[in-house]
Amino acid sequence: MSLAAENNDQQLGNPRSSRRDDGRLHLFWRILFGWLAFVAGLGLAVVAATVGGSYGLSTLGQQILLAVVTTSVSVPLIYLLRRYADRQPWRGIGLASPPSGFPYFLLGIGFIVLVMAASLLLGSTLGWLRVVDVHLPVPTLLVILINSMIAFFYEAFPEEITFRGYLYRNLNTRFPRWLALLFQIVLFVMAPIAITAWMVAIGIGTWDLITTEYIISLIVFSAALQLSRIVTNHLWMSIGFHLAWLEMVRYVIVPSSSAIVEVEYLSPLGSYLISIGSVIIGVIFLLIWSIRKGIDWSAIDPDPDPDQIAALPVEASHRGNERTR
């Protein structure tokens, strides 16, 4: 067997062994278990909320339950995989401490504000929509505050940790950035499909939500979020992007007098522009940003040897995992 073949076998997995010579799980198993960690967390959350609803739990209570179960199951499982299956520091997935990451979190929010402003301008210019009025309704602001906390722990945080963080990081140790991004998109799209299939199988779900439009939105959204992570080297950027977009399309820019930016759709294309087109605009901006930054899309970034990390002082090992990903 050639050296290249041996390296590939070490990365992708040998059917005769689930672990590599350095004690880490093979890449195939790390990807599979990472994906299952999120699917299991979200699946259990949906069952818990469904059962709670059958016993009279309020809608808000079900949403809180979804958030608590999803994060409390998925994130610890990803941490354990990173610690024991990867044998790598947690910071390697791109998640800095909250104080260090907060500016990037705000950058993600600001980026979405810019993208949505561009979408509104484009839609108005093309005659697809018009801005009716701008409000600051206190009830809506309160709803956004509450929903932001729920959406953070139910969607933005566990999804970014899993897909744009852990799974992408592992994929990029074996594949070029562009291919790791594409594989991450596939894994992201497969997650809700698998959960829906499981829900249908146990009799608590239907296939109604898995539409062509939904799949397209997942693909575009996942690409934009991963690009955010790549161009900034910070997962907090994609978390801020994710959370802000959810609030924008749910409460901020909607055809309702309770919205902050009340719009009227003059064409079905106006609605698509805000929901999907805005993300496509974001992808274009991020690709331009990556070009200006000189991102090497063919780069493969293998993890450092676990034994070498263990031999380094704590400060040095942290610095080693802050290098450009």
From TrEMBL:
Write out the GO MF terms: peptidase activity
| Coiled-coil annotated residue ranges, if any | none
**Which positions, given as ranges, span the membrane?**
27-51, 63-81, 102-122, 134-157, 178-204, 210-228, 235-253, 265-289
Q: CAAX prenyl protease 2/Lysostaphin resistance protein A-like domain: which residues?
A: 145-245
Keyword Protease present in the record's keywords: the answer is yes
| Domain of life of the organism encoding this protein | Bacteria
Q: Does the keyword Metal-binding apply?
A: no
Pfam families, alphabetized: Rce1-like
Q: Which UniProt keywords apply?
A: Hydrolase, Membrane, Protease, Transmembrane, Transmembrane helix
Give the protein's recorded name.
Membrane protease YdiL (CAAX protease family)
Task: Tell me the organism.
Answer: Paenibacillus lactis
